[in-house]
Design a protein that fits this description.
The chain is mainly alpha-helical and 195 residues long. It has helices spanning 2-15, 19-31, 33-55, 65-88, 103-112, 115-124, 133-157, 162-194. Helix 3 packs parallel to helix 5, helix 3 (33-55) packs parallel to helix 6 (115-124) and helix 3 (33-55) runs antiparallel to helix 7.
Length: 195
């Protein structure tokens, strides 16, 4: 029963609004299932990195103010960059509207700089882990993977017009700016703690 709860927690957490799920959905809407699944692979690779860190007992590194300062600043810069690119992009349905040629790498870095993912793995997941940590990780990962795959499949099946896609780009860029600001706040708090 604990494993089902853990899978459910992962599923719900992955579907809550954030940069990762918006990126997957955007890829599905703009470019179809293939690019959306590539984005899912990048995000799930980032989740494997987080799970590995938790497994190695490095979950507490996320509480280190130097780590928070560096990740906060670099993550914010990265998210601001993506937000500006998406905001200025005009969707042309005949032309693919991807941000970069390497969707996998973009999704991986997006996940690794995502404060929601950092907090989720460093703080939220730990109380749910059972005695068999590998089964706990597997259940959690399966729940997360199912959520992202669901988002990828559904978003790739929807046929939208250019005007709506441009609106979705604007909304996604605002969400990315919001998370970039959250990262800067984390960095500022870490800076205050250091100095």
């Amino acid at each position: 029963m604990d494993y089902l709860i853990l899978a459910f927690v992962g599923f719900v957490a992955a579907l809550t609004p954030g940069p990762d799920i918006f990126y997957v959905i955007r890829q599905g809407l703009c470019n179809g299932i293939k690019n959306s699944l590539i984005a899912v692979a990048g995000i799930l690779s980032g989740n494997i990195v987080y799970l590995s860190l938790v497994y190695l007992g490095l979950g507490t590194i996320g509480k280190n103010p130097y780590f928070q300062l560096i990740v906060g600043i670099l993550g914010a810069i990265y998210l601001f960059r993506i937000a500006v690119i998406i905001f200025n992009e005009k969707v042309n349905i005949k032309k693919e509207c991807d941000i970069t040629k390497n969707i996998y790498k973009e999704a991986l870095f997006l996940n690794l700089s995502n404060p929601k993912a950092m907090i989720f793995f460093a703080v939220v997941v730990t109380p749910f882990l059972s005695k068999n940590i590998m089964l706990s990780f597997l259940a959690l990962f399966m729940g997360i993977a199912l959520a992202f795959l669901t988002g990828a499949i559904i978003s790739s099946k929807i046929n939208l017009e250019e005007k709506l896609l441009n609106t979705i780009n604007k909304i996604a860029s605002v969400v990315f700016v919001f998370f970039a600001i959250k990262l800067l706040i984390i960095a500022f708090e870490a800076f205050k703690e250091i100095f």
